[in-house]
Design goal:
Number of helices: 3
Helix content: 25-40%
Strand content: 25-35%
Shape: globular
Mean pLDDT: 90
Distance between the termini: 25 Å
Strand order of the largest sheet: 3-4-2-5-6-1-7-8
Largest sheet: 8 strands, mixed
Number of domains: 1
Order of helices and strands: EHEHEEEEHEE
């Protein structure tokens, strides 16, 4: 896939707050998001918190227990534990999950990989695997207090 990109965010704060800021930004750019979670409890938690955590009044979202597969297309954010295409997502957002070996990632134009700064080596390995899958446009943003700086995997 041409122009396939990965944006890495190395965070020192709570994933929850960073994820929702990213969702707002992507929603404003009209990107459809697949929000990958480790388990169903996370799916339910993040989906339920989206309503109260974003500045925008409403971002259409859902998961397999809240929305029928036929209506998923109306959701800009779909919460799931597996890669699925029910809402025609262009982007995957996740919390440091290693999805880099999954051949289905090539169906996406962007991956947003948010991870804790103390797992930088693991993110670096994912970066190389993403490159091997055609995601050659990569950026790394590192949280430094309340600001961000662009860095590079070394």
């Amino acid at each position: 896939m041409s122009n396939a990109s990965v944006i890495f965010y190395a965070i020192q704060s709570d994933f929850f707050s960073i994820a929702y800021k990213l969702i707002e930004k992507m929603y404003m750019q009209r990107e459809r998001i697949l929000f990958l979670c480790d388990n169903d409890d996370e799916v339910n938690f993040y989906n339920s918190k989206l309503w109260t955590s974003v500045q925008l009044s409403f971002i259409p979202s859902g998961n397999r227990t809240t929305i029928s597969p036929e209506d998923a297309i109306f959701c800009f954010v779909w919460f799931a534990t597996k890669i699925t295409f029910l809402n025609n997502p262009t982007c995957i957002l996740h919390n440091g999950l290693d999805i880099s070996n999954n051949p289905e990632i090539t169906n996406f134009s962007k991956i947003v990989d948010v991870f804790s700064k103390d797992t930088m080596n693991s993110a670096k390995r994912r970066s190389q695997k993403y490159k091997d899958s055609g995601f050659t446009d990569q950026k790394l943003w590192v949280q430094d207090g309340i600001s961000w700086k662009q860095e590079y995997f070394v």
